[in-house]
């Protein structure tokens, strides 16, 4: 009897020890990974590419898209602080969503080289090809990336256009990307009615974001065969919108004025009498060689462009 009690007690002690060991091991492991993540995040923020590569090599199973207390990932920190080498290393382990967000961050911050690096990366190009195969989707219905500072309908082309980043705009235009012109305010199609029912203010912001891109100097200069005519027509359209749009009246007026200033800049670049005659007398479509006396001047009067 005594021996049996000793054996039972011994088994309980062993069982207790066996139960507690994994728990301690797990806690210890969690602490190790937490410290690693902190070190990894700090290295990304400070541009310590050697620490980044060392940790990734020693701990391939570690989540390289961990976040700090402010919700910032290592890639986001590296982009923000313009650490190109760190960005290049992290892109190899980044998801498509994080890569897309990083491209927007780089464009927003004006880090052109980093933006180009991301936009030219094989994984980013694969993502773009995949989207093309699925067909065009309406950005109005896109959901925002967690902790993103950008509206879900903002694309790299729209953002680069708004920032007048000619290098990025040209890169994306050469790939066949465009900014889709929103439907007219008076459009009563089923799709527009559906969007109004879902969120009228969101639709208004979606439309404004698109026009901010369309009205940019970079986008018009690189996408239009006749920038002056395009600017005149778009400015007149935006002024009409300002009398209809109740949410962003002032913004549309500012965009129209911005286009008028853009035309003045173009005219200021004229250096010879021949150039002046070609510009002032051009009429018709951009690809048509038609000229008449002061055609551009008459067009400016038609669209009430006083500055030109």
TrEMBL record:
Keywords for the protein's UniProt record, in alphabetical order: ANK repeat, Ion channel, Ion transport, Repeat, Transport
Gene3D superfamilies, per database record: Ankyrin repeat-containing domain
One Gene Ontology CC term in the entry: plasma membrane
Oxidoreductase in keyword set: no
Domain of life: Eukaryota
Keyword Cytoplasm belongs to the record: no
ANK repeats: 70-102
Gene Ontology biological process terms, A to Z: regulation of cytosolic calcium ion concentration
A Gene Ontology molecular function term of the record: inositol 1,4,5 trisphosphate binding
Protein name: Transient receptor ion channel domain-containing protein
Record gene name: 106066958
């Amino acid at each position: 009897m005594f021996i049996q009690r000793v054996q039972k007690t011994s088994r309980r002690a062993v069982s207790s020890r066996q139960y507690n060991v994994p728990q301690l091991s797990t806690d210890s492991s969690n602490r190790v990974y937490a410290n690693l993540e902190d070190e990894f995040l700090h290295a990304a923020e400070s541009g310590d590419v050697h620490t980044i590569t060392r940790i990734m090599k020693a701990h391939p199973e570690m989540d390289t898209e961990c976040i700090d207390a402010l919700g910032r990932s290592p890639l986001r920190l590296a982009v923000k602080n313009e650490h190109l080498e760190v960005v290049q290393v992290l892109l190899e382990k980044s998801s498509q969503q994080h890569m897309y967000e990083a491209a927007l961050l780089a464009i927003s911050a004006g880090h052109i080289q980093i933006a180009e690096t991301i936009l030219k990366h094989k994984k980013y190009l694969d993502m773009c090809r995949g989207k093309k195969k699925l067909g065009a989707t309406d950005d109005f219905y896109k959901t925002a990336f967690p902790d993103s500072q950008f509206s879900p309908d903002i694309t790299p082309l729209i953002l680069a256009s708004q920032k007048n980043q000619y290098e990025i705009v040209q890169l994306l235009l050469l790939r066949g990307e465009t900014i889709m012109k929103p439907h007219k305010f008076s459009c009563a199609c089923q799709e527009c009615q559906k969007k109004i029912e879902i969120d009228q203010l969101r639709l208004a912001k979606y439309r404004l974001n698109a026009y901010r891109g369309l009205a940019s100097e970079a986008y018009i200069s690189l996408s239009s065969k006749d920038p002056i005519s395009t600017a005149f027509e778009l400015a007149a359209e935006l002024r009409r919108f300002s009398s209809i749009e109740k949410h962003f009246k002032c913004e549309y007026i500012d965009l129209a004025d911005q286009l008028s200033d853009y035309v003045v800049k173009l005219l200021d670049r004229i250096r010879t009498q021949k150039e002046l005659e070609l510009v002032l007398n051009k009429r018709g479509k951009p690809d048509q060689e038609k000229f008449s006396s002061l055609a551009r001047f008459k067009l400016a009067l038609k669209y009430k462009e006083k500055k030109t």
